[in-house]
Amino acid sequence: MKAGEVRVSGSLDVGGQLEAESLEVWGSARGGVVKAGEVSVSGSLSAKEVRARRVVVHRKSKVRGRVVACEVELEREAEAEEIVALRVTAGRGAEAERIEAVEAAIEREASVEALLYVSQARIHPEADVARQEKVEKLSEDLSWCREQAGG
């Protein structure tokens, strides 16, 4: 499915790939691979993979599957499984199984099983990061983020 702007309030189930410039979820959405410019989740999004310039997982919302993006923001008490991004912010009480980032900020009471970072990791003393490791590079090539930003 290809679209310019997709807004879901209720539920959406796309068996294959969903491509959109903008995806806003209020409720639940499921798909194989989601490719979008901007993704905003207030509810739940479940996909094999989400690729986007920017992903915001709002308060008490969830993303299941691998997120590959230029920038990811997990707001307060949001949840994600796996994130690979240039910049990641995990807000207060947010939870993630695995974060790979060039720069990461983990706020108070956030919980991360594994944090792999290239350049910088700012971790609040009251955050719970089970394992952190500085790495040479990310597992994904995100050079397309810089290309899109440069226009």
Name some characteristics of this structure:
6-stranded parallel sheet; mainly beta
Order of strands in the sheet with most strands: 1-2-3-4-5-6
Domain module count: 1
Q: Count of DSSP helices?
A: 1
Q: Which stretches are poorly predicted, pLDDT < 50 over at least 5 residues?
A: none
Q: How much is the average pLDDT?
A: 94
Helix content: under 10%
N-end to C-end Cα span: 25 Å
- Roughly how many Å is the radius of gyration? 15 Å
**What structural class do the secondary elements suggest?**
mainly beta
Q: What fraction strand?
A: over 45%
The overall strand count is 6
Q: What is the H/E order?
A: EEEEEEH
Q: Characterize the overall form.
A: globular
The largest sheet, given as strand count, sense and whether it forms a barrel, is: 6 strands, parallel
What is this structure's SSE topology?
Blueprint: E1 2-57, E2 62-74, E3 79-90, E4 95-106, E5 111-123, E6 128-134, H1 143-150
Parallel strand pairs: 1-2, 2-3, 3-4, 4-5, 5-6
